[in-house]
Amino acid sequence: MMINPTPRSLLYCSALYPGQYAKNNLTDVMVIDLEDGVPLPQKVQARLCVEQFYRGHVSQRTALRINPLRDNHGLLDLLLVQSLDQRPEFIVMAMTEAAAEIDIVRANLSRDGESPKILVTVETPACLRDIHTIASSADGLIFGSADYAASLGVTIGGWANMLHARASIVSAGSAARIPVFDTAYFKLDDEMGLLQECRDVRELGFSGKTAIHPKQISTINEVFTPSVAEYEHALAIVQASENSGEKITKLKNLMVGPPFVKQARKLIQRAQELGR
Fold first, then answer.
1. In the predicted model, what is the mean pLDDT of residues 199-211?
2. Cross-strand pairs, 29
3. What is the residue extent of each domain of the chain?
4. 74 Cβ contact list (under 8 Å, min separation 6)
5. Does domain 9-223 have CATH number 3.20.20.60?
6. Which of 37, 80, 145, 227 would bridge with 183, disulfide CB 3.0–4.6 Å?
7. Residue 264 pLDDT grade (very low, low, confident, very high; cuts 50, 70, 90)
């Protein structure tokens, strides 16, 4: 059985518009949004749309973002997922503030010992405060910078004011050995800005990035896929280490030691997961 690779791109789509769920097969995962993407008076209608969607043939990888558990709509969302024969690969939790919330979702969605993978959106200071405990219970983390910035009263979409949160999320994800996904880029017509932010967050250690428009997907996928040059360089590092008997050695002008080899092996594994 082939295991799906860690996503590079996750595209949000309101649960109210089933026709848009498959509008862009280039995204690794389509996130069907029952939370912010649905106005309060239309939550019931949105759940009906989701139910109808999963009754049909779903060919692409999907996630379902549910409302917070502290909200009755979050509990109704859980009941909806329980009732589905065909379920999303991922559940995206919103406004999570404690690891116990993850345990509740997993226990209620468990079927024959398995449940959808749970991605936790980190979007409050309370979540960041307990990020390592939360990460240890989750299957992945998503940075929700808009709500996080709003809670601090700072500019949404900034870099310096979000750097601490991003670094904390990456550290917690790495310690828990789960993937982490960066926040969406909100300036739709700023392709160069999106490209630069993708490069920057990949360098921080993020596995991929969320998107709010299909036109952002190709840039995200390209940046989070190791290039041919990166792959070949990683292979050369591993080969140089093996040729030296795994001693510290020299590759052109680079001194290669165990940390370089460890990083190279990770890049090779990721490239091969993505079909490099």
1. 97
2. 10
3. 9-223, 228-273
4. 66, 67, 68, 94
5. yes
6. 145
7. very high
